[in-house]
Design brief:
Elements (H helix, E strand, L loop, with lengths): L15 H18 L13 E6 L5 H12 L3 E6 L11 H9 L5 E6 L4 H6 L5 E7 L5 H15 L6 E5 L6 H12 L3 E5 L15 E3 L2 H7 L2 E4 L15 H8 L3 H5 L6 E3 L12 H4 L6 H20 L7
Parallel strand pairs: 1-2, 1-3, 3-4, 5-6, 5-8, 6-7, 8-9
Helix pairs in contact: 1-11, 2-11, 5-6, 5-11
Length: 310
Amino acid sequence: MSLSVKHLLGIKELTSQDIEQIFQTADNFKQVLQRPIKKVPTLRDTTIANVFFENSTRTRISFELAERRLSADVVNFASSGSSVSKGETLIDTVNNILAMKVDMVVMRHSASGAPWFLSQNVDARIINAGDGINEHPTQALLDAYSIRERLGSIKGRRICIIGDIMHSRVALSNIYCLGKLGAEVMVAGPPTLIPKHIEDLGVKVEYDVKKALQWCEVANVLRIQLERQHKPLFSTLREYALYYGINKQTLDSLGKEIVIMHPGPINRGVELNSDVANSKQSIILDQVENGVAIRMAVIYLLSGKVDLED
């Protein structure tokens, strides 16, 4: 039980067999998470450092919980208040952590390509927890796993990613992942938030959200990432919500039920109204739950352990 890669830097480097292996392993770990004792001793001799150079709540907690469920020793590092603020380089920071005999590094960084750069310069397994506007592989894996869980399969399913495609690492990783698994993928949103030539990745493009919802079986809705936008790309959030936000009335008008997803955090009243986020069509909380099992699977498979212990 192992992957074809040494590190998880992005979905782009994974094979469809790798993804299926991760899903099958996550199935086993999800059963573990339903037990009264939600822990296995599999990685009790492994130390993992969570190195986050960007703010994060959900991803960091999900990784830490996954690591502790595997009985790993966990070291948490945040750049705020660290020597990074004094000018220490990325490699020096991580090498100092590795000198403490750390086996694996989970890293989030604002610079695209930072995990790849790190993997070329340090001796440890690297897991990308999000790099700039490039990739967020474990989010895409848990999204696809959640679709598989709800619909039974992914091949041939029509899945639409809606919102700020331009600045979203989640969108790119999802496009790669869903494409490898045989889904039909569409992106939808304002023209200013959809990259030019994105069709080259094998996706359809739609600027009318109602038409996109009519086409799809699953809508993965992304938040507007104002912190990454260096110039105005639409008039106001109120205007965005009016033309591209999804509410219960919009869903009811489709004449069919679709699955609603969101990687979080949700800007309620902007891209999704609460009556949609909290509806029975939403699998947002399932995504959160599945994130722990998927991250357990990734960590386990990259660790090189042979047997899945009880």
